[in-house]
Amino acid sequence: MNSTRNVLNIILILCVCLSWGCTDGAQKRENGEILTHTIELSSLFPSSSSPCVLSTRASNTKSSLHVTHRHGTCSSLTSDKATTSPDHAEILRLDQARVNSIQSKLSKKLTDRVRQSKSTALPAKDGSIFGSGNYVVSVGIGTPKRDQSLIFDTGSDLTWIQCEPCVQTCYSQKAPIFNPSSSSSYYNVSCSSAACSSLSSATGNSGSCSASTCVYGIQYGDQSFSVGFLAKEKFTLTSSNVFDGVYFGCGENNQGLFTGVAGLLGLGRDKLSFPSQTATTYNKIFSYCLPSSSSYTGHLTFGTAGISRSVKFTPISTITEGTSFYGLDIVAITVGGQKLAIAPAVFSTPGALIDSGTVITRLPPKAYAALKDAFKAKMSQYPSASGVSILDTCFDLSGLKTVTIPKVAFSFSGGAVVELGSTGVLYAFKMSQVCLAFAGNSDDTNAAIFGNVQQQTLEVVYDGAGGRVGFAPNGCS
Ligand SMILES: *[C@@H]1O[C@H](CO)[C@@H](O)[C@H](O)[C@H]1NC(C)=O
Questions:
Q1: For 30, 151, 198, 363, which has the most beta carbons within 10 A of its beta carbon?
Q2: Ligand 1 atom with minimal separation from the 180 CA
Q3: Is the CB of residue 213 below 6 angstroms from any atom belonging to ligand 1?
Q4: Which residues cross the membrane (predicted)?
Q5: Domains delineated in the chain
Q6: With helix as H, strand as E and coil as C, how does 298-314 read?
Q7: Helix (H, G, I), strand (E, B) or coil at 277
Q8: Using CA positions, which residue lies closest to atom 5 of ligand 1?
Q9: Would you name the residues annotated as active-site residues?
């Protein structure tokens, strides 16, 4: 008996060893599950001359918009030759500004709650967040409709665009600035309206009044702002998805890092957000896929159209209650099939959220340390390189054609296990500096943030009515 088992064990070990020694360096478990990704290094550096590949999902779904990266081949904002390659150091600096702003909003909310339970002090007002949200869709506004390129943001609520006349400053944008006087479906909103009152929760500032017209002002964590009239307009997503009377900000004084785009599409959870305003049609459900590079488009789809059956859902966590954010509960991280030893409280104490505008995923310090150690151990065949900005685990891949990296998966409460796409793990500066695209928070009490590099190629479903967020692989194609 025993000896038979031993022989079987030896055969099993041999099989495992043989499969681990696979030709392309891929590692497998005995059940055949592949534990690594092998990536062509050239795919990490999209060339500005590669043609734009359109998402068929976006092309074939009626309530779907193409999502493009702000810079690159697919963006109508980038003029053909003068492709401004984004400055990575600047992107990461702004990313940290956004993260600081999200985390201070959340911790302020927690201290407010404590304070409110003790006295009748009003909650502190805080600005919205903005940073380097880099994904853009085009939405028709007005009659006749004019296409507006908008950064979409799950971390804020008010949708706004630049409007004529610019009374102080308008930043430069690619398409002409919207002129409300040439649209027959534009209406000002009165100061006494409920929409005007809801500005305070949507923007952190209550609306004010000018000749009985409601005036909004929103400032972002990075000193950007937009000020103008709260208005109602016709929004045309596609020819069959048209909404009359959508509240938005017609900004006559706008400043900040929005260069090129016309404004912002607010996809947060507040009453004034676009999903809330279109709730009778879409039930606060939308999904998106962020493309793997600037040479591909992804999609932003409203309603349940096209949502894959393989989506796995996790409840929106209570940590973000009363904010615009969609909260998540991370319960585990797996690297190359190995579950990291991280105590549950490391995740549950600060909580987590998903954000379309944060670039690099932030983890509690102890979770990041465990991830980094496991990743480094499985990448030991590659020489290390110095860190850049917030990224400290980098490799020198000069002269190589491919790199084999361990797969990384996140487990969320409710049993949703999400394996990151092959482009969701690394952030490439240059061949000699390709880094693990995660960073640790500076404090154990700061919330984790599931960022947009990690979301690339996943189908991400936001179900505001059902109180859940879901994930499925290969969402862009
Ligand atoms: C909206 O209100 C502003 C400020 O009172 C005014 O200048 C503008 O003409 C109004 N537009 C419409 C269409 O009523």
A1: 363
A2: 13
A3: yes
A4: none
A5: 51-302 (2.40.70.10), 312-472 (2.40.70.10)
A6: EEEEECCCCCCCCCEEE
A7: helix
A8: 211
A9: 153, 355
